[in-house]
Design a protein that fits this description.
alpha/beta
Length: about 375
């Protein structure tokens, strides 16, 4: 264990630098830094009243990751942001894909950064062991513009995870700025300082995230980094009540990844743990789990059309995997949150009983 006095001296030195209210995107900060709490927080801070939930690669357990289908299902549950993996193609444009190579996740092979935009977006993102032969096969790899239009139209934010191939981070910010309201609601993950500088030069009001890579990062260092970064993310074990207190003293916010269950063994458990230590947001895999865990079930309605009924959530986006009751049958919703109606059911009522993530409805 490190001796406390040297750490406290370091913390006080950083605190003496003053608040970070002059940094881009900073709120008015009336907090008085309390470096002693960075060593022993005592009662944890309270995070944002509305915990800001980002869905990792969209609802990737409901549809192929980084596709519009996955984004729709994430926002159907009323989540605040989608996280997208941004790769830059050989002709300088941007597509949504996690890996450097397309092997194993598409019907192609090779490095995505050596492809043109047209070549990359012609790939089938559902041609893999998870989704091949499903109702989502085929689904093309999405271009960044599709996600930006989706975020604009549904008034949500994007967490831009800039992958290794992105050499022009400023271009991502400039492109995002063309879509009304998106920059203001979004977060950029630059990973390296030069990208941070590029982003803020292109879009001074952009919000950037520092991804803490170590469990033993001194809270005082996180406080100091608040002069440049607005949100702090990465693995849940890298944060505790003391580090959250230091980040809050810089008038910044914390959004750890909870989808791996690193602390408690489950996504729901880590989400509650994050809220308990004062986190302001979290990145999840399963929007339905987040809605249930935070007691934020989405309002639903059933839209009935000839031969079909659909269970719709936030922004009238479909909720797949839910059980609808019609006549004597119980039918699970599929793509778009829809089911086919048997003609023998006639005009029988279609109903949804509700669950912890979605409220009941009937039509």
């Amino acid at each position: 264990m490190r001796p406390l006095k040297p750490l406290l001296a370091l913390a006080l030195a950083f605190a003496a630098l003053g608040s970070t209210t002059g940094a881009p995107g900073a709120p008015v900060c009336d907090r008085i830094p309390d470096p002693a709490r960075w060593l022993a927080a005592g009662e944890p801070d309270q995070g944002l009243e509305h915990m800001r939930i980002t869905v990792h690669r969209g609802a990737a357990n409901l549809a192929p990751e980084n596709t519009i289908h996955a984004f729709e299902y994430a926002i159907a549950y009323g989540m605040d942001m989608i996280e997208v993996d941004v790769q830059q193609t050989g002709d300088g444009r941007y597509v949504l894909f996690h890996d450097l190579t397309v092997d194993g996740k598409t019907d192609g092979e090779g490095y995505i950064f050596l492809m043109t935009y047209e070549e990359a977006t012609a790939l089938n993102a559902a041609d893999n062991d998870r989704w091949r032969g499903s109702v989502y096969d085929p689904t093309p790899v999405a271009g960044l513009e599709e996600a930006l239009a989706f975020a604009r139209d549904h008034e949500i934010g994007i967490n831009f995870d800039l992958k290794e191939s992105v050499w022009n981070a400023a271009g991502v910010a400039l492109l995002a700025a063309q879509y009304e309201g998106v920059i203001e609601r979004s977060i950029f993950q630059p990973y390296v300082p030069v990208r941070t500088e590029q982003i803020l030069a292109a879009a001074p009001d952009a919000i950037v995230m520092f991804n803490s890579q170590y469990e033993d990062t001194p809270p005082a260092m996180l406080y100091a980094l608040g002069a440049e970064y607005h949100w702090f993310g990465s693995s849940m074990p890298n944060y505790d009540a003391e580090r959250v207190a230091a980040i809050h003293d810089a008038c910044r916010h914390v959004q750890p990844n909870v989808y791996q269950g690193d602390v408690t063994g489950s996504e729901a458990g880590d989400l509650l743990y994050a809220r308990g230590i004062g986190a302001d947001g979290a990145m999840v895999n399963n929007p339905d789990v987040a809605a249930a865990t935070l007691s934020r079930p989405v309002a639903t309605r059933i839209q009935r059309e000839p031969g079909m009924a659909c269970l719709l959530g936030h922004h009238d986006l479909g909720l797949p995997g839910k059980t609808l009751h019609v006549a004597e049958a119980a039918v699970t919703t599929g793509r778009g949150g829809c089911i086919e109606l048997d003609p023998d059911w006639g005009d029988a009522e279609v109903s949804f009983d509700g669950d912890a993530s979605a409220l009941p409805s009937a039509a």
